Recover the amino acids of this structure.
């Protein structure tokens, strides 16, 4: 079994981005700039946004955070998006989700210029990806494709089973794995909560991508000998083994599945670290006008 080390791969990618930023700065006198909108005081969202700002600093990007109280009106938020859309210094904008219930998430997302939508959530980017046009791909699927590519995992002609059909992971993942490109060219099956005979299907997977949101859902009996297993889940659970009293686990029973897998991502240190670096990659592409010219 080989561990796919997301920490190491993401560190390499950050070094590559930082080197590119130096080149861009020498050429244009400007560095890539990522803006984030954060509404409310949700601790997890605050941590995500702070981590994104730290990652920007690490690779030499500029970053700006726009913070709003939880009772901000939809109009105020849309106006902020317009303001950032019109700021030529800002290359990419993310609106940290979830937003409070009184705000229409889709309305806000669709207000972001597709050219600045480095989260890849705007329907224009989703649609472009679907038909194979250049687009921003959302961070988790992008990170997984990079992991597969950089670990030299063959995907062509393989059976790929995806557990989960969410808009930001399962759905885009299925399109990317089935596309006529590398990585891609896999035969893809998407499973979800209504799927029957799940174990039978997962047991045929050469590549199993798990984004089902249930702790240790995938057990060894569901996995084929020699499969590549990508675990997107992350859950904080109580533990007597650690000083802090909790530990992080994935959607896969790592201890038993790792014995059968040829490659597997750990939790933590697998898919997780790849997501922020994917956002940085998209912001770099935005600053270089790589997607929309
Ligand atoms: N909330 C959880 N994940 C994400 C993400 O990738 N982007 C944004 N904007 N919000 C999130």
């Amino acid at each position: 079994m080989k561990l796919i080390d997301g920490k190491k791969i993401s560190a390499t990618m950050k070094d590559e981005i930082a080197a590119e930023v130096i080149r861009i700065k020498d050429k244009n006198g400007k560095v890539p700039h990522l803006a984030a909108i954060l509404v409310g005081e949700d601790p997890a969202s605050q941590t995500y946004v702070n981590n994104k700002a730290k990652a920007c600093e690490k690779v030499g990007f500029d970053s700006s955070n726009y913070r709003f109280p939880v009772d901000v009106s939809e109009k105020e938020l849309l106006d902020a998006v317009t303001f950032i859309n019109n700021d030529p210094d800002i290359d990419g904008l993310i609106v940290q989700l979830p937003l409070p219930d009184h705000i229409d998430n889709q309305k806000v997302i669709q207000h972001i210029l597709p050219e600045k939508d480095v989260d890849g959530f705007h329907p224009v980017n989703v649609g472009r990806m679907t038909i194979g046009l250049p687009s921003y791909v959302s961070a988790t699927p992008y990170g997984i494709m990079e992991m597969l590519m950089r670990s030299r995992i063959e995907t062509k002609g393989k059976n790929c089973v995806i557990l989960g059909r969410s808009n930001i992971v399962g759905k885009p993942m299925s399109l990317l794995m089935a596309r006529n490109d590398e990585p891609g060219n896999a035969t893809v099956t998407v499973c979800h909560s209504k799927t029957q005979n799940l174990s039978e299907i997962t047991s045929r997977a050469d590549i199993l991508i798990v984004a089902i949101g249930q702790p240790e859902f995938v057990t060894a009996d569901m996995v084929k000998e020699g499969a590549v297993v990508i675990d997107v889940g992350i859950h904080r659970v109580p533990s007597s083994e650690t000083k802090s009293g909790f530990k992080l686990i994935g959607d896969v029973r790592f201890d038993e599945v790792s014995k059968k897998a040829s490659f597997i991502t750990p939790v933590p240190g697998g898919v997780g670290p790849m997501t922020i670096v994917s956002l940085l990659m998209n912001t770099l592409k935005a600053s270089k006008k790589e997607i929309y010219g």
Q: What stands out?
A: Residues 6-28 form the longest helix (23 residues).
